[in-house]
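Reply to dn_fold:

You asked what the input looked like. This is it:
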Amino acid sequence: MSTPHITLVRRHGSSARLEYGVECRDFNPEGRWEVVGSVVLVPELQMYQFQPTAIWRKKRVLPPHLYGLDQRERVAEIRGEYRGYGSGAWGEAVHQCANALMRDRVYPDRLAYRWTSSGRAPRTKPPDLTRRARHGGRHPPRTTLTRGPLSAL
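and this is what came back:
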């Protein structure tokens, strides 16, 4: 499998909720960028929700929320609810981009996913080393994922 090509394009939002369109050029033979979903970020709660388009569902791509689970839970979900689904590289790219935006608290108009050999998440700015200090020397809290509607929040 080749590297996933994912770009998040800001649609609208406020400091409380931001919506990004998810574009990909890997789902059509022409290599044309097309919208394959949307992601709504709720930075204060460190949550996001992904809504796939028909092409994402047709290609049976694993959803981004799986990459926020530990490996045992992820494997159980894939063997159960997502049996027969294909690659998850695109879902992982969306997950990493959403987390990078909320982690760095920078919300550009566009964020392109860049695969690195280390497998690290994309960075929107240099790391803020003081965040770890604010959490007693521990890493800051992890992002919480949601599969239900964010309207209930």
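Residues 10 and 108 are 7 Å apart (CA to CA).
Hope that clears it up.
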